[in-house]
UniProtKB/TrEMBL annotation:
Positions of the EamA domain: 17-149, 160-286
Presence of the UniProt keyword Transmembrane helix in the record: yes
Keywords: Membrane, Transmembrane, Transmembrane helix
GO cellular component terms listed in the entry, alphabetical order: membrane
Alphabetical list of InterPro entries matching this protein: EamA_dom (IPR000620), EmrE-like (IPR037185)
Pfam family, one: EamA
Naturally occurring in which organism (per UniProt): Oryzicola mucosus
rRNA-binding listed as a keyword: no
Bilayer-crossing regions: 12-32, 38-61, 82-102, 108-125, 132-149, 161-180, 187-208, 214-233, 245-264, 270-287
Protein name, as recorded: DMT family transporter
Length: 307
């Protein structure tokens, strides 16, 4: 038998590798978001969705072949699968629509509230009862969203509503990830990409700006980067506990601030900073209480399909 110290060291190394993969995967998602913001300044959301999805299949292709057509088409609960595809497509589409006008950090602030929405919805739809402490954190998180949203007749913008609708779709797709946990990850992502491809193609019928080869390559790279980030985080969840990895998703907000300042000259104002601080602290407390009460954080609470 191997010494206990050797096994312990091996486990620690796996966790460290998982943390590193999670951090780098989040960096890749943030890079994907920054590239998307740059591209939607010149091309329609439909074009970006369409060509991005083609690029994604360069990575997904081997996974689809390995999965086989039988598993791809014989999915459980097809209506919920279809609903999840639509929600995931709305999540990505509204994200790109929002970043046309808003700084990356502003939009990402709304998306960081996804786990808070999930905790509230799981209480009602998955019978995962939240105690009073988590409800206080959930309500505080909603207050953070309201602070970031600036809900006044003078300042409430359509772009902020895009971000709010997109982040709500994101949370609902995470909820369905929990319901459809028996479906393999590659099947979920494949159909999600097919949905974005179809919706993007439809939107392109009304708005098409002929891209150059460089632009096509950049949009295809979006899909490749997003899929690579997805695979990194999926692998991280196999190496380290979700309770360890879940808080690391908030590094996305840090990267959004950095990339927004570096590439677009955008800096979040005080209201966004206050709102994001409330959301992050609330989310961290929810993860903490999940671990205290159930001794685990479900893997499906760690988003692996960011916009």
């Amino acid at each position: 038998m191997k010494p206990a110290s050797f096994l312990s060291q091996r486990g620690e190394n796996a966790i460290i590798l998982g943390v590193c993969l999670m951090l780098f995967g989040n960096f890749m998602f943030a890079l994907n978001d920054a590239m998307g913001k740059w591209l939607v300044a010149s091309f329609s959301v439909g074009q970006v969705l369409f060509i991005r999805s083609i690029g994604a299949f360069l990575v997904l292709g081997p996974m689809v072949l390995q999965e086989g057509p039988r598993n791809l088409f014989s999915v459980d609960r097809p209506r919920l699968q279809f609903l999840r595809v639509m929600l995931a497509t709305a999540d990505t589409g509204f994200f790109y629509a929002a970043v046309i006008y808003l700084p990356l950090a502003d939009v990402m602030t709304f998306y960081m509230a996804g786990p808070i929405y999930l905790a509230a919805m799981a209480h009602f739809f998955l019978d995962e009862k939240a105690g009073w402490r988590r409800w206080v954190a959930i309500l505080a998180g909603f207050c953070g969203v309201i602070v970031a949203l600036r809900p006044s007749t003078a300042s409430l913008s359509l772009e902020s509503l895009f971000a709010l609708i997109g982040s709500t779709s994101f949370a609902m797709s995470m909820l369905l990830n929990r319901v459809l946990r028996g479906t393999s990850d590659s099947v979920l992502v494949t159909w999600q990409t097919v949905g974005a491809l179809i919706v993007g193609a439809i939107l392109c019928l009304t708005s098409w700006n002929p891209p150059g080869l460089f632009d096509i390559g950049a949009m295809m790279l979006l899909g490749i980067v997003s899929c690579a980030a997805h695979l990194m985080i999926t692998r991280a969840l196999k190496l380290a506990p979700a309770s360890t990895l879940a808080p690391l998703q908030y590094t996305l907000l840090l990267w959004a601030v950095i990339f927004g300042a570096m590439f677009f000259g955008d800096l979040p104002d005080m209201q966004i900073l206050v709102g994001s601080a409330i959301i992050v602290l609330s989310g961290l407390f929810i993860f903490h209480r999940q671990k205290v009460v159930t001794n685990r954080v479900p893997k499906e609470n760690v988003p692996i399909n960011m916009p």
